[in-house]
Amino acid sequence: VRRELSDRCLAVLDPESAASIEREREQQLGIAKQLGKKIAKTIHAKDKTKAMVEWRIMPHSLYTIQQKKQQEKGDEDFFVFVAIAKDRDGCYDILKLFHTLFRPISGRFHDFIAVPSENAYQTIRTTIVGPDEHIIPIRIRTEEMDIQEQSGILLKCFDSKRNVPGFSWLK
Length: 171
Fold this sequence. Notes:
The protein is α+β, with helices and mostly antiparallel strands. The protein contains 6 helices and 5 strands.
């Protein structure tokens, strides 16, 4: 909801910038898909435990891209790659594969599975130097963590039967 709202607000407040970023993001999609296929093929070839059950590209919101450009970090990634693991241990198996097969970037690693954030966000974030020296941001999590990340507090509000860690205060 927040993502969609921020993109819609940007389109109203700065339509030229929003359109420009959207065009640029669409141009980068082809490159991202090719990189994603190469990375997935490399990981699947070495993933003996079959820990990675899904691999996808998730575009950053237009607003997020605009913020990164304004901060001039030199970090204009338009996409993040998401690896879904079969279980919690699988997340760490996948992380080990990424850090063994590709060069991790120092200072760009956060383990929100071992230490979830206050809003119960759980994922492993890392950034690697991938094929052709592209900087690749990666998120590794289980399917349940992915559902919680996408739905957040709404998951608890609309699915009261599900015990979602971190939202017990809503009772």
